[in-house]
Specification:
The protein has about 475 residues and is mainly α. It has 20 helices and two strands. The protein has a two-stranded antiparallel ribbon. Belongs to the complex I subunit 2 family.
Length: about 475
């Protein structure tokens, strides 16, 4: 093994690790007064990491030259695609955070540092070529996330969210670890290529149970059914910038890891896990759609919307084809933009005293008092529902097209029918915004950075976003080609 080559391939992780440790020292000496400076430097470190991974995506990097530390780490085009989304969404959540936490006098220097260390873990997850790398990255992300969920220490809802996330996360990690031990026991290796080779001549029953347990553990990280129950409570209770973070970066990392495990380690046994993914996809679509109907809190509604969209993204994985995997990445990118736009708009919902408004009923008639904000929320809702000409339609189109091409017509038909149910609760929010009598509750001023992020994210999910579909699809195809080349 060439150590210099391996160290070069992990340059983004090295950059973030050094930045995190240096900023931790700054926080120790400067205290919470330095939180603004630390946030700015953290964003700069994440942008630098994005710049370091971009060449691998642009060049379609794949093959042995992208493998580090005896194949335990892959710095290929697939990991680069995922890392750009992870680092970009993490940087955006850091920009959104200061004005929110200052409202509660809770802006602490540790917040951006926790986000940086979580980003390092997520980067390891999408680059994993071994079960050990997978677990280290997963736990590094999870430990930081548990603290972030409970970051508002004087808020009972935040403390409850952190505790629920920790308990259920520990359960999911145990299940995942048990599945990994079964896989190792029946294949004799933790390396993805060697696991794939060991299963080439058949799938022992023990290894099948290993796949099932690993899928259950990973389902928690993407908030898919059956381990979705934490999502509404954590989304509602966690600070809104943290919720924005949970809805974007960890989702990308979870899906990236799931694709690595299933298409690399278990790619030769797709018949064994395909039906499980089909069930999880359909169950997530239905549970997310039905669960959102009765919600009165917009953050809880977005949580069920997240579960619903996870199901749609998994339709692409259920096809087991490159077209389906490419569709997943396209949809995932669009979903990140929709989530950023949605939660940024929610952060701008404040009353005259600066208190955050989360009840949907209090948004009545917002189109007449804050027309720009109402328009942004309506665009997010229509895009999440997959209604053209907004870009959310394109995300659904590419995954359903892949399902049809893979002769999975029943899956596509059920998914399309279930999306009609989901449209109901999105349209309910639009109806409150535009047709109910004004409640005159949302009258507070918004932070200028929130306005800038909302404008750009809404432009991306608007019809103008279709101008980028060719470029996005080409890069997603480069990423999936690199992923499948790792077999």
């Amino acid at each position: 093994m060439d150590w210099s080559q391996s160290l070069r391939l992990i340059a983004p992780e090295e950059t973030l690790s050094i930045a995190g440790l240096v900023l931790l020292l700054v926080a120790a000496w400067g205290g919470d007064k330095a939180s603004r400076l630390i946030s700015i430097l953290s964003v700069a470190a994440l942008v630098a990491a994005m710049a370091l991974v971009a060449p691998a995506l642009c060049g379609g990097a794949m093959g042995p030259d992208t493998s580090a530390f005896f194949g335990q780490f892959h710095a290929d085009a697939f990991s680069s695609f995922a890392k750009i989304l992870i680092y970009g969404s993490a940087a955006i959540t850091l920009v959104l955070a200061p004005s929110y936490f200052e409202r509660f006098n809770s802006m602490r220097a540790e917040y951006p540092i926790l986000v940086i260390f979580a980003s390092i873990g997520m980067g390891m997850m999408v680059s994993a070529g071994d079960l050990l790398t997978l677990y280290i990255g997963l736990e590094m992300m999870s430990l930081a996330s548990y603290v972030l969920a409970a970051f508002l220490r004087n808020d009972g809802r935040s403390a409850e969210a952190g505790l629920k996330y920790f308990v259920l996360g520990a359960l999911a990690s145990g299940i995942l670890l048990f599945g990994m031990s079964l896989t190792y026991g029946f294949t004799g290796s933790t390396s993805f290529p060697l696991i794939n080779a060991a299963l080439a001549n058949g799938l022992p029953t023990g290894a099948l149970f290993g796949i099932v347990f690993m899928l259950i553990g990973l389902a928690f990280k993407i908030s898919a059914v059956p381990l979705h129950m934490w999502t509404p409570d954590v989304y509602e209770g966690a600070p809104t910038p943290v919720t924005t973070f949970f809805a974007t970066a960890p989702k990308v990392a979870g899906f990236g890891l799931l694709m690595r495990v299933l298409l690399d380690a278990f790619g030769g046994q797709s018949a064994a896990w395909q039906q499980i993914i089909v069930f999880i996809a359909l169950a997530s679509i239905v549970v997310g759609a039905l669960g959102a109907i009765g919600q009165t809190n917009i953050k809880r509604l977005m949580a069920y919307s997240s579960i619903n969209n996870v199901g749609f993204i998994l339709v692409g994985l259920a096809t087991t084809t490159q077209a389906g995997a490419t569709g997943m990445l396209v949809y995932l990118t669009i979903y990140v933009a929709m989530s950023v736009a949605g939660f940024t708009a929610i952060l701008m919902l404040k009353d005259a005293d600066g208190n955050y408004v989360e009840e949907i009923a209090k948004l009545a008639g917002l189109s007449r008092t804050r027309p720009g904000l109402a328009l942004a929320l309506a665009m997010v809702m229509f895009s999440l529902a997959g209604i053209p000409p907004l870009l959310g339609f394109w995300g659904k189109f590419v995954v359903f097209q892949a399902a049809v091409q893979a002769d999975m017509l029943a899956l596509a038909a059920i998914g399309i029918a279930a999306s009609v149910i989901g449209a109901f609760y999105y349209l309910k929010v639009v109806k409150v915004l535009y047709f109910d009598e004004p409640a005159d509750v949302v009258t507070g001023e918004s932070d200028v950075w929130h306005k800038i992020i909302l404008v750009f994210s809404c432009l991306f999910i608007s019809p103008f976003g279709y101008l980028l579909t060719g470029w996005l699809g080409a890069n997603a195809e480069k990423a999936t080609t690199a992923l499948l080349a790792a077999l």
